[in-house]
Amino acid sequence: MGFLFPTFLWGLLAVAVPLAIHLFNFRRTRRVLFTNVSFLKEIETRKSSFRKMKHLLILLARMLAITCLALAFAQPYLKRDAALVDFQGIKSFYLDNSFSMQNEDNNRRFIDIAAGSLDELLGIYSNLTSLQLVTNDFSPEDHGVFTASGLQDRLTSMELTPASRTFREVYSRQKSMIGNASPAGKSEIYWISDFQKSTAGDMAQIEIDSADRLTLIPVSAGEARNIFVDSVWLQTPFLRQGQKNVLNVRMRSSGSEPVENLPVRLILNDTQVSASSVDIPANGAQHISFDFILGEEGYIRGIVNFDDFPVTFDNQYYFVLNASPVIRILHLHGGTLNLSDPVNRVYRNDSLFHVTNSNAGNADVGQVSVSDLVILNEVERLPPSLMAGVVDFVNKGGTLLVIPPGKPDVPSYKAYLEQMGLFGLDQYSGDAVPLSEPDTRIPFFQDVFEASLKADGQVNMPAAASVWQWAKAGNTLLSLRNGHQFLSQITARQGKLYLLSAPLNAMAGNFSQHALFVPVMYKIAASGVRAEKTAYSFGDNAIELTVSDAGSNTIFKIRNGEAEMIPVQRLAGNKLVLQLPKKGELPGQALEPGYFSLEANGKTESLLAFNLDKAESELAYYSAEELRRQFAGRKNVTVFKSIEDSDLGERFEKYSTGTRLWKYFLYAALGFLLTEILLVRLMKS
């Protein structure tokens, strides 16, 4: 048996007081006159023996009452295990305050349940001064050691945070802080969390120090439903101002119950522009479409909004739209310019494109680097100075379409195309051969064909007479029925190369007259635009952006109101790669979802939208039994069944310090005092 406050054992000396009173018997005697002495002797003998027994019983009751009272104040306990006596170091508590703790059980938020139970547990350690509290914020407030009342004060201002942590990170943080405090004995570590599977990490791989004692206290979390936006994308690669556009939204449910008629709203620049409803299967996904007209220029702040309770942190999904800028096309042709050729017919009549026609023999090489798409159309002789610029343009992220002439200079083309990743180019001649039906499953042909045509697989295809062939490389987008390639897409470092096997004139076939020609040319032009994503996640390790010409010493910043960060960055040409702070954290601050401006040299380069990592929205939890399996075989790890057990405090007391006995001694003291009163009142002479 041990004592939490052994100094109170000095109170046992008070037992001497009633003993001294009994021994010295300081009572005053009264003189009573009797005429019959023999009768007096008989009464005196009987009373003397009765009085002695009464006084001894009262003395015993008083001494036992004082003894029990002193022991109650010393707070005795039965030690749980001799091996655990030495845990006199830091008591470090981790309280999960991530957004998933917004979930409710019996109309009480998990975070409120956890904070209330932690407050109760801190009451057990009310006399200790070596306590620590860690939250998901990993804030400077975590450092140092505190009293129980100090931590209880922090609990009153506890708020949810967008930062989520793996338990490996939590344990590392707690061990670091315990080490900084230099504890004298072994330490105890406690985790109070909903133990969300998607953010917990691989707990079985955490190396728990054998000198520590780890206690897991799960918030009772059963099956939970949550709705969130998985992704947002445009129906077409071009976002046109003043015309109807279509936005697709993929919704997901992490619950075991289906969702019916969930209203979903589309908000652009703080104005609701469209609404719809969606049915989502249990643990499934469904996508809906919104029609809208973009009436403003510049960046548009978009929100997909819906109502889902009790978890509301992911009820808004932020994204950014920007009306497609004019796509700059440099058309390098051979021979005399013909404004009615297939290339000009496709691009010149659409305001989305700005076409610059130039003869390849006297083209301005400077025009190449400022274009989005360069087209070499039936150029027989390739000027070396021009081609050096074209190769550099493609390798740095540009897009090139090569349309061969009727009699190409194969060796010249071969030398330059090999620098862009295409090999095995050879002369070829033959009759026109029909094209095979395209594979509608590949991304290039997404949204090109109607669903009915995809299902039937019947598409009337054109024919073409190839003038060259090449070794298979990259993606074969269109092929001839003889197995030869007709249109290939090759990735050339950061750029793209598209190569046709036949000219577009009528002598080489009817591809340019076919209905497939226009969407293919639009798709090629769209790939030349370095479209930015509509939204990013704080869970992304790095993001890649396209910026205007910037010097190598340019410093890019990301700003959201007062919050500003300078991420690790790498600039290569017009490609900017930003290494985001882990989980969107600044020192002592977690960034909230919303809109962030990318700034350089005092001007805004781009507007970005950031959302929480979708892992936080997956509300599946480890049960106590699953947690025990995660830490199987580790004797210094204990898992409580649930934080909501009514006797958690008592069981925690027994587990932490053994079975406390002070209540029993207090009851015993009261019982002995009552016994004394009864002895005095009932044992009359």
Short description:
The protein is of the alpha/beta class. It folds into 5 domains: 2-79 and 669-682, no CATH class; 86-224 and 619-657, Rossmann fold, CATH 3.40.50; 226-309, Immunoglobulin-like, CATH 2.60.40.10; 327-527, Rossmann fold, CATH 3.40.50.880; 535-613, Immunoglobulin-like (Sandwich).
Describe this structure in words.
The chain has 685 residues and is of the alpha/beta class. It folds into 5 domains: 2-79 and 669-682, no CATH class; 86-224 and 619-657, Rossmann fold, CATH 3.40.50; 226-309, Immunoglobulins (Immunoglobulin-like); 327-527, Rossmann fold; 535-613, Immunoglobulin-like (Sandwich). 26% of the residues lie in helices and 28% in strands. It contains 15 helices and 38 strands. The strands form 11 sheets. A 7-stranded mixed β-sheet has the order 17-16-18-19-26-25-24. A 5-stranded parallel β-sheet has the order 6-3-7-8-37, sandwiched between helices. Strands 27-36-35-29-30 form a 5-stranded mixed β-sheet, with no helix packed on it. β33 (585-586) and β34 (589-590) form a beta hairpin. The radius of gyration is 41 Å and the shape is rod-shaped.
